Amino acid sequence: MGMNNNRVEHFDCHDQQQFQTIIKIQQQQQQLDIAMEIHKVELPPQRTTLHKLQQRLSEIFFPDDPFYRFKNQSCFMKFILGLQYLFPIFQWGPQYNFHLLRSDAISGLTIASLAIPQGISYAKLANLPPIVGLYSSFVPPLIYSLLGSSKHLGVGPVSIASLVMGSMLSETVSFTQEPILYLKLAFTATFFAGVFQASLGLLRLGFVIDFLSKATLVGFMAGAAVIVSLQQLKGLLGIVHFTTKMQIVPVLISVFKQRDESLKKPKLFWVSAAAPLTSVIVSTILVFLLRNKTHKIAIIGNLPKGLNPPSSNMLYFNGPFLALAIKTGLVTGILSLTEGIAVGRTFAALKNYQVDGNKEMMAIGLMNIAGSCSSCYVTTGSFSRSAVNYNAGAQTTVSNIIMAAAVLVTLLFLMPLFHYTPNVVLAAIIITAVIGLIDYQAAFKLLKVDKLDFLACLCSFFGVLFISVPVGLGIAVAISVFKILLHVTRPNILVLGNIPGTQIFHNVNQYKEASRVPSFLILGVESPIYFANSTYLQERILRWVREEEERVKANNGSSLKCIILDMTAVTAIDTSGLDTLCELRKMLEKKLLKLVLANPVGNVIEKLHQSKNLDELGLKGIYLTVGEAVADISSSWKAQP
Amino acid sequence: MGMNNNRVEHFDCHDQQQFQTIIKIQQQQQQLDIAMEIHKVELPPQRTTLHKLQQRLSEIFFPDDPFYRFKNQSCFMKFILGLQYLFPIFQWGPQYNFHLLRSDAISGLTIASLAIPQGISYAKLANLPPIVGLYSSFVPPLIYSLLGSSKHLGVGPVSIASLVMGSMLSETVSFTQEPILYLKLAFTATFFAGVFQASLGLLRLGFVIDFLSKATLVGFMAGAAVIVSLQQLKGLLGIVHFTTKMQIVPVLISVFKQRDESLKKPKLFWVSAAAPLTSVIVSTILVFLLRNKTHKIAIIGNLPKGLNPPSSNMLYFNGPFLALAIKTGLVTGILSLTEGIAVGRTFAALKNYQVDGNKEMMAIGLMNIAGSCSSCYVTTGSFSRSAVNYNAGAQTTVSNIIMAAAVLVTLLFLMPLFHYTPNVVLAAIIITAVIGLIDYQAAFKLLKVDKLDFLACLCSFFGVLFISVPVGLGIAVAISVFKILLHVTRPNILVLGNIPGTQIFHNVNQYKEASRVPSFLILGVESPIYFANSTYLQERILRWVREEEERVKANNGSSLKCIILDMTAVTAIDTSGLDTLCELRKMLEKKLLKLVLANPVGNVIEKLHQSKNLDELGLKGIYLTVGEAVADISSSWKAQP
User: Fold this and answer.
1) Can you tell me the distance from the alpha carbon of B76 to that of B80, in angstroms, rounded to the nearest whole number?
2) Contacts of B198 (CB under 8 A, 6+ apart)
3) Check: CATH 3.30.750.24 for A11-44+490-639?
4) Per-residue pLDDT at A407
5) Start-end ranges of CATH 3.30.750.24 in chain A?
6) Separation of alpha carbons A164 and B466, rounded Å
7) Cα–Cα distance between B582 and A315 in angstroms, integer?
8) Closest approach of chain A CAs to the CA of B375, in angstroms?
9) Which residues 595-624 in chain B show a CB within 8 A of chain A?
10) pLDDT tens, A370-424?
11) Which of B613, B627, B604, B636 is nearest to B43 (CA)?
């Protein structure tokens, strides 16, 4: 099998083992006439460029095949299905009944009790008047309930988007000095966030949010949480002489700590749901009763009664701060979208239904556009609200309508009650909310499983903490992208060996029983061959060849004659890659070494064919499997010794 | 085999075929007791984090293992080898002889005849005084001949870096109005280009130049060539009344056209090498003879005699234009580096020796730093010079020393001869040089082989043409990176089928004889599973399952029971990917479908193990090959019908 008998006698122990391996393969092949037959590597069926482009684009933009429901349907049904597609309420509306309503009413009221104090607090986090937080818990949930496809998403302002908006706008404009301009910018940013979100959905570019990996978000949110907590602590520490009230912080913390576990302990969910409202009520009553003795405590003060005033006249489309508004809109838009989609998917997975990412983006985008015209700021699906909603037994988005109704009642009649609510309790609510964003367990898991992911997490944490929110976010995305590029730029190359008694070839490092086949060097390239790695691969493969030659020499083994590249994991190749293969073949030929390819996938063999590289390699140079390559080449050596 | 006998009778034709396939596999497995044995999937050997990090870093920064020569050597030999490593001249110096010198002298004088007119022209292209071009052909080649590892690289100013420097600096500073500032900025940009190049080499970050793919460079250079030609045409058209001289343009073009073919026709190389000098001499003599009648023709004018004056005092390290100088330095630095390394590698491959990329970067960087202190602007290995050098028979970098000596003689004694050289001939030399950069054949090949590469090429062409040089370059790199990301974000998923009579499973689209195995859906994922594609993969796999169920239903086939993911091409996985696999398994379990993995590679199985996903899947859920998975699961169904 490619070596003379008289040479076999000189083999040392190591090589005899290898020789036995090859004999075994040979015997097995003789037993198995079927497997010995060499299979031709086929080109995939010819497709036109247009067809290929169409297929590629549909894979990029319509991977979920959103129109499959419309196939083979009558015109009327298509209309109905289209209506249901645009407004999911028509899908579940007809089956809606009293039983569902009861569940939704309970959960709706429950999330309202969370939404009201959260709305007020988060608006403060964004440096906005507290009432804007309540407005934002009224219009957007109504719009979402018409358009959204998630059944459990609780819609409203969220901490992360609020704090990002607050910190980005406050860098340039001070709310205390220019409240009207600040408000205008906030609504304008919300408008652009909505436009950005809706157009991502409309253009089916939803995958851009996938680039905010979980690892970077963990770091980002923890960093943001630390910033906000420090900001709010100032407010808390400003009232140290009011000792009794300080107790509420550890109490709240201990209550809220259970929030994260609420998914697992549904019985306790009402604690986390009711705690903010309870503390607001208790503290408001306390301050009201002691109002003569506690005039040093900052309170919310007068809140205007009444519904959301229109704010479309406050949108700001030209002027020196337009760029700031757009930038803030983009950053808060993408962050809130990421949270909304992730939360929607989480609860959909729990109940085993699917959420259409692109449609959700449109729903969230439209609700923000509508919100920006009705005095609301950026809203999305909130994790805390959705968890409470889910645990309170929500069945459809009607729970959002119920919540909006409860907020409506509050706006119309109950606003004076919040006059004496102390700011400190809002600070406490904010701190407990954002401290929940610090997911050290996730960070620990990252450290254990994937060091590079942990590095991305750390970098985004410190980037947000020490530089700024958009820069931190930018760093986080850059690291994630860099990680992908690094994998492509420096791909693994494995040395494959035969697992005795089989036709299976595997990494000799991973499988100790896998043994190298004498005279062959079988390399598995674990990446597409691109411009970004073609030079590296060429030099690295030549280094493998050099090292193998040295190893063989040191062991007095049979000299290297053939290099087999296992192309199974080479999922794509570009023009630089094709040139590299050509170059490599020529360089190896000068060393009297043969280069063959095993198992190129469809589009790689297509490109090899188009670029005429195939002609140079010859059809003989490409095999279906490594096993067939070894068998065929060994037997050809035997035939011509 | 997973289906009851009484059901077999109801199979239609299509399914009987499939059934026969499975029977065949079964028979074959029975024949082959060896192959039937199920192999355990093994974890790669345990390594510490430090060891893994070390290995990873050495793969990133030292893929060429530059220290392998030093292994097992005495201290003295290590010193000698180190000296040879730093100054390759010590490597070939001792063997240098008269025979080599003769070859080098001939080729050195030949490239000098090209270098002198090129130097003058390219300096004009960078809006610099012509004499700077000659200075740049003197010091840098001397430095390179000490440090460089390529034997054939002809060093000097190149068109692409010259025109980029000219266009970037001229946007802000005009040479005619502020010649001293312009000169200062040019030297400073050269200094930063050198620092950037040398540090890329020193930090072993050479791979960043790989991100300028050939496709984008083809487009970039063509765009740049068009810009320069249009600029220079102004100069040419300004002298239309001087008709006799115009003839030189088509002549030069026709002469230069052969330049690209010079590699293939060594006999003709002297035409291209001598043409520029000849035209300069002829035109200079003509203008000199007709000097009284042709005072309207712009001529070079007085050039100072003498060697490079020191220019380290002209480096500009603070002031309003520092950022411009740094930016220009980075862009010209990376462009000239790309050209230099690519040219070095091309000729090394022709003569079958290796060029060390990182060391070349240091050599080119140091020669530019030295150049910036001796009145030179950015230089690198030039394609035209190197081709002429190679064809003229250069053996070592001594040819660069000979060229520098010839330039030295020119600088010291011959400068007055260039007084009457008309600018128009320099414009013609520039145009012919840059027109050679338009490689329409390469663009056509891109169009044929890889549409996305062609798009990148087009975009960089139009970006440079209509926006600006750095923006065009940025677009080009962004598209190349986007292409990689797109491949990762939307990876292929293949449906695999069995090739009858074998254990081989292949894409059913590519191999018509491959047939699906009833009750199984075998999917090959062709990409690492990352945050950027984990959502897509999850939804796409669920769509495949849905479509397979519909297909099976339409054909009355045996119902789907098991999904096998072939992980051969999944070369890496991150924490998001691990979560996705878990999620997917749970979702499929709710549909009573089994999910197993086949052939996970080393680091994937390691991560599965670390994240405890492996425990959930169970060792039973992972197989070494698809064939073993099918065989084992089918027989388990048979055992428990």
Assistant:
1) 6
2) B361, B362, B364, B365, B366, B368, B369
3) yes
4) 92
5) 11-44+490-639
6) 37
7) 45
8) 34
9) 601-603, 605, 607, 610-611, 624
10) 999 999 999 999 877 888 888 888 888 899 999 999 999 988 888 888 777 787 7
11) B604
**Structure-token match 């190298």, residue found:** A516
Q: Which of B453, B486, B602 sits opposite A575 (nearest CB)?
A: B453
Helix-then-strand count for chain B, H and E: 28, 8
Q: In this complex, is the C-beta atom of A54 within 8 Å of any C-beta atom belonging to chain B?
A: no
- Contact residues, chain B, for A65 at CB < 8 Å: 543
Q: Which residues pair with A156 in a beta bridge?
A: A380
Is A556's Cβ below 8 Å from some Cβ in B?
A: no
- List the single residue in B59, B214, B530 with the smallest CB-CB distance to A531: B214
Rounded to 5 degrees, φ, ψ at B498 are: -85, 135
**Bridge partners (DSSP) listed for residue A595:** A563
User: What is the three-class DSSP state of B467?
Assistant: coil
Under the banding of pLDDT at 50, 70 and 90, the label for residue B614 is low
Distance in angstroms (rounded) separating the CA atoms of residues A279 and B617? 45
- Note whether A211 and A350 are within 8 A (CB): no
Q: Which residues of B touch A523 (CB under 8 A)?
A: none
The distance of B357 to chain A (nearest Cα, Å) reads 10
Read off the pLDDT of each residue in A519-540 and give the average, rounded to a whole number: 88
pTM exceeds 0.80 for this model: no
Q: Any chain A CB within 8 A of the CB of B528?
A: yes
What residue has token string 């005699």?
B305
The one-character DSSP state at B128 is: -
Token readout for B628 is 């073993």
User: Measured between beta carbons, which residues in chain B are less than 8 angstroms from residue A492?
Assistant: 571, 601, 603
Q: Calculate the average pLDDT of chain A.
A: 79
**What's residue B117's pLDDT?**
84
Question: Chain A partners of B450 at a C-beta cutoff of 8 Å?
Answer: 574-575, 607
CATH 3.30.750.24 in chain B, residue ranges: 5-42+490-639
Q: Within an 8 Å CB–CB cutoff, is residue B526 touching chain A? A: yes
* Token representation of residue B411: 């600088």
B53 in contact with A, Cβ within 8 Å: yes
Q: Which CATH number fits domain B5-42+490-639: 3.30.750.24, 2.30.40.10, 1.10.540.10, 3.20.20.70?
A: 3.30.750.24
H-assigned helices in A373-450 = 383-391, 398-409, 423-435, 440-449
Percentage of chain B exceeding pLDDT 90? 15
Which residues 284-313 of A are in CB contact (within 8 Å) with B?
Answer: none
Lowest model confidence (mean pLDDT) among A161-170, A471-480, A606-615, B139-148: A606-615
- Which CB contacts under 8 angstroms, 24+ apart, belong to A472-477? A472/A220, A472/A223, A473/A212, A473/A220, A473/A331, A473/A335, A476/A212, A476/A213, A476/A216, A476/A217, A476/A219, A476/A220, A477/A211, A477/A212, A477/A216
pLDDT digits (tens, 9 = 90+) for A539-548: 889 888 988 8
Residue of B569, B576, B590 with shortest CB distance to A214: B576
Contact residues on chain A for B58, CB-CB shorter than 8 A? none
- Confidence class of residue A237 from pLDDT cuts 50, 70 and 90? low
Q: CB-based contacts of A408: which residues, under 8 Å, 6+ apart?
A: A138, A307
Contact A60 B490 (CB under 8 A): yes
Q: pLDDT tens digit string along B88-130? A: 888 888 888 888 898 899 889 888 888 888 888 889 889 899 8
Number of residue pairs across A and B with CB atoms under 8 Å?
A: 251
Q: For the segment B202-241, what is each residue's pLDDT rounded down to a tens digit?
A: 888 877 777 777 788 788 878 877 877 777 776 666 443 3
CA–CA min distance B591, chain A (Å) = 10
- Decide if the complex's ipTM is over 0.90: no
Task: Determine the distance in angstroms separating the CA of B432 from the nearest CA of chain A, rounded to an integer.
Answer: 27
